[in-house]
Hints:
Layout: H1 7-28, H2 34-41, H3 45-57, E1 61-64, E2 67-70, H4 72-77, H5 79-104
Antiparallel strand pairs: 1-2
Amino acid sequence: MGDNVFKELRDALETAKRHISIIESLMREQPSGIIKISQLTGLPDHKIRYSLRVLEKDGIIIPSKDGAIITPDFVEKKEELLDGIRDILKDMNSLEDEINKSLVGRK
């Protein structure tokens, strides 16, 4: 029950986890192409392709003739990624508190 209410949020979380998995694989071994990333992560090619486009648009990776590489700018600012995750966790905890108070009756 309530699965549909949070479906979009769950989908976004899965996408974010995939992006992070690709970043982690590139931090270990770069440059890497789609096939290599698929071998490292177990993700299907089409999902990797989508994530690479998003990560490139966000300035996290750049393409090279040998595959994707992490940008020097991202390496310097990767703590910002953790800050963003912490902010999201605070929001999720606030949502849980609100649901507990208003819908479940817990404090």
